[in-house]
Amino acid sequence: MQPKKEQWSTKIGFILSSAGAAIGLGAIWKFPYMTGMNGGGAFFLLFIAFTVIIGLPILIAEFIIGRGAQKEAVTAYQKLAPKTGWSFIGHWGVVGAFLLMSFYSVVGGWVLIYSAISIPGLIISDTANYADLFATITGNPLITLIGHLLFILINIMVVSFGIKDGIEKTSKVLMPLLFIFFIILVIRSLTFEGAMEGLRFFLQPDFSKLNAENVLYALGQSFFSLAVGISVMVTYSSYLKKDVSLPMSAGSVSIMNIFVSLLAGLAIFPVVFAFGLEPAEGPGLLFIVLPEAFAQMPFGEIFLSLFLLLFLFAVLTSSFSMLEIITAAFTEKKQRSRKKTAFISGILVFIAGIPAALSSSSLADFTIFGKTVFDATDFLVSNIMLPGGCLFIALFIGYKMDKTLIKQEFSYGNQLSNGIYNVWLQNMRWLVPITIIIVFLGSIGII
């Protein structure tokens, strides 16, 4: 007899868990440095536009596919389009989640290390050079590999417990705490002398700084931060009851994602300009700016420790979703043990992530198309696999999936009009795929 499928216990649990899958490294770590490297306010404005016009409709689509099929990513497409090749979208998603987690867990390891050394007060000091500290940590192969491994082991443990007892319980407690601490950090950052220059950089668009590549990065960032394009949300929504409104849930996740990205920018850029730091610092920006900001606060070391721990949990809620899609794909299809599958999947991700973990040390001189393994994997996932997956999902919803089922899933749990449904569907059929294709072709110089 097939075991009963797990479900989220509450609507808010699903929304916070989905937000947790989206709000992690994408909004807090990657968004500030991508904004700093790609034009400041103009990039932020594009990011918002792409999130609302492209990302949100795709998030609704992934929710519809998952709950409509009541299956994880690979099996969902097989059930909704049997005896066709559309199941490749699910396989694309599993591969994408695997690659994404292989470098995501490296950064998660950095956060874990920073959290650990902040507790005894080993980060903030009067003579500390935070850029040098970051370079020392990421440049040590043993430290980065240990952090990478420990981060993976935490993921294995939580995902092994499943949806209700693992992911949902964790997200319902930790996500609200993260919001509170972020607001505290923003208030302090805005009081620094010179903070207004950072605000202007972040909130005042200068479109002369944009090019086709920046636009692609903004599109990729909107997908990365919403966790769409690799069918993570297909898997999450497959555990969802029918009384939950998918458009409203997707809207809540998108709003929270934009809000946290805004908070991240408001927390980071005033400090960057107040202390004469470089906004285009790259992946280390957050780890250099946060200690600088907290060092100026009373009890700064304690607040830094608490914030890093909450940040760690936000990162973990995102990585849970990636390991979940990999685990669910093999657990449901082959009826394997969840705990055993999570362990094997996690160890394989650890092995695959070793080159990325060593990109700042032993493999610093090894490049792929001029990029380190870490940067090359990030580029492949963020700017090729995520937009590609979103394009395929849009085409599947627009031209293949049964429209009666789509409308039913769109309408459950809400009173939205047929007009809103029709606008969303036409958006998926035309605007979403055309925009993705134009942005991608523009970035490689074809148009």
UniProtKB/TrEMBL annotation:
It is found in: Membrane. Keywords: Membrane, Symport, Transmembrane, Transmembrane helix, Transport. PROSITE patterns: NA_NEUROTRAN_SYMP_1 (PS00610), NA_NEUROTRAN_SYMP_3 (PS50267). GO terms for cellular component: membrane. Signal peptide: none annotated. It is a multi-pass membrane protein. The chain crosses the membrane at residues 12-31, 43-65, 86-113, 133-161, 173-195, 215-234, 255-277, 302-330, 342-359, 379-399, 430-446. GO terms for molecular function: symporter activity. Pfam families: SNF. It comes from the Bacteria. Belongs to the sodium:neurotransmitter symporter (SNF) (TC 2.A.22) family. PANTHER family: TRANSPORTER (PTHR42948). NCBIfam families: Na_transp. This is Transporter.
